[in-house]
Write a structure and sequence with these properties.
This protein has 318 residues and is mainly alpha-helical. 59% of the residues lie in helices and 3% in strands. Helix 10 crosses helix 11 and helix 11 runs antiparallel to helix 12.
């Protein structure tokens, strides 16, 4: 591509660094701000902002990369070239196969290079698990998840939160980082991020002040979006009289059942506990409790495993 000369006011002072627009995480002197590879000293100058936008647009307009046009729109949603950017995104957007989990690794990498966030998230999972032809590489997984999250994929932000919350090979537990990614996912409307962020508020972890009411609010939002974990956690808050909710074991049992039907192993174990003790309007039923503890244990839920062992120890439930 032939370079396009851009005129910038020579009377301005500060640090000017022009980079390839695809450059990742450049370093600039303190006090500078960045915009798509352009660094400038901070100024409240509308003319300068227009020059920055023009320089950015000139650097990407002929690259035929929808990811770069999307980045432009995030930085200048009402910019002079917003309509053109939207048109070019549609023109050059790659065709995304319906089943990314069946796509080849090469195709996924190609889609990711073109800014397709779904492909980035899929690659993150593949490198995390070592699947779909990818060798297990947690650093690559984090890089792809981060790229997808920065492009608005809340599920990728949630995966990052889980990695830092639990710690993985070579990645130590970092609860504050987990909270930041859960918050990013929650802001993007990801139901599992909302639920896990609620748990961090409930427990006061990751630098967050303990706040049951905030936790309940987040669990409710997650539940409204169909999160089994959010529904189950909301049931726990009703059962325990927390977060401003009046204790209501019937409501708790209903929520546990809903969450269990959606596949929450913890909800299955909690529902077993309700049958064991005859709570929440449920008749006491040791056999039903054992059945539910067994189901939860089969799903790998520690509460189900422990409770099932106790039932065997005491010879209860047949």
């Amino acid at each position: 591509m032939k370079p396009v000369p851009i005129s910038i006011d020579t009377k301005l002072t500060g640090t000017f660094v022009f980079l390839n627009p695809r450059a990742l995480k450049p370093s600039f002197p303190p006090g500078d701000t960045t915009s798509m590879g352009i660094a400038i000293a901070k100024r409240d100058n509308p003319d300068l902002n227009s020059q920055i936008e023009l320089a950015l647009w000139a650097s990407i307009v002929d690259l035929h990369d929808p990811g770069l046009y999307e980045d432009y729109l995030r930085r200048f949603p009402d910019g002079a070239f917003a309509a053109a950017a939207s048109t070019l995104i549609e023109k050059y957007r790659p065709v995304v196969p319906p089943d990314l989990d069946k796509a080849s690794l090469a195709d996924l990498i190609s889609l990711a290079k073109h800014g397709v966030r779904e492909a980035m998230t899929q690659l993150g999972g593949d490198y995390e698990r070592g699947s779909q032809g990818a060798e297990k590489d947690l650093k690559k997984a984090i890089a792809y998840y981060t790229g997808a999250a920065e492009k608005g994929d809340g599920s990728a932000a949630h995966r990052l939160g889980q990695i830092y919350y639990r710690g993985r090979e070579g990645i130590p537990v970092h609860l504050q980082e987990a909270a930041l990614w859960y918050q990013r996912g929650a802001d993007l409307g990801d139901p599992e991020s909302l639920s896990d962020l609620g748990l961090m508020y409930q427990e006061g972890r990751g630098g967050l002040a303990q706040d049951d009411r905030k936790a309940v609010d987040l669990y409710q939002k997650a539940a409204d979006l169909g999160s089994a974990t959010g529904i189950s956690n909301l049931g726990c808050m009703y059962a325990q009289d927390r977060g401003g909710l009046a204790q209501d074991e019937r409501r708790a049992a209903e929520l546990y059942q809903q969450a269990a039907d959606l596949g929450s192993a913890l909800a299955v174990a909690n529902l077993g506990g309700m049958y064991l003790e005859g709570r929440g309007g449920l008749a006491r039923d040791d056999r039903r409790a054992v059945e539910l503890f067994q189901n939860a244990a089969d799903l790998g839920e520690p509460e189900g495993i422990v409770n099932l062992a106790v039932m065997y120890q005491h010879g209860r439930g047949g």
